[in-house]
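ok so for the tutorial part 2 we go from a plain amino acid sequence to predicted C-alpha cells. step 1 is just haveing the sequence, like this:
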Amino acid sequence: MLNPGHTGGALHLAARLGAAAPPLAELSTLTYVARKPQGDRVRISGVAGRVRAACLPGGEAALDLACELYPCAVRERDVLATGLANVNLVLHPRPPCSAPRGWRRPAARFASTPTRPRPPWPA
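step 2 — the prediction. this is what the C-alpha cells look like for a chain of 123 residues:
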C-alpha cells in the first residue's frame, strides 16, 4: 500500500517491478500531517478526515487492508481516480518531467528572492 500514492505511484511501481510487483493499493494523499521538528521527534498535527483509495487489478487484498487500517479511506473505482484527486500537485508544484537531463532550478539572484512565484492574492 502506498500512503500516499502520489500521482501514478502504483502504476509506476508496478511498471518498475514488473511480474515481481506485489498486490498494490494507493491512497490519494497522506492520512496525516506530520513534521520532524527534531532529529528524534515527529509531531503529528492533523489526521485526514477522508482520503480516496484504489488498487490495481489483483490488488483487492491490499485495498481491503488499506481501508481497514485507515477508516477515512473511501474506495474509488481505480488508481486514476486517486491520482487525479491528489491536491498536492497544485499545492506543491515541481519542475516539469520533460525538463532536459541535468536541468537544475536556476539559483536565486538575491537571498530574499522566492524559489516559487507567489500567488497574486494575499496569503
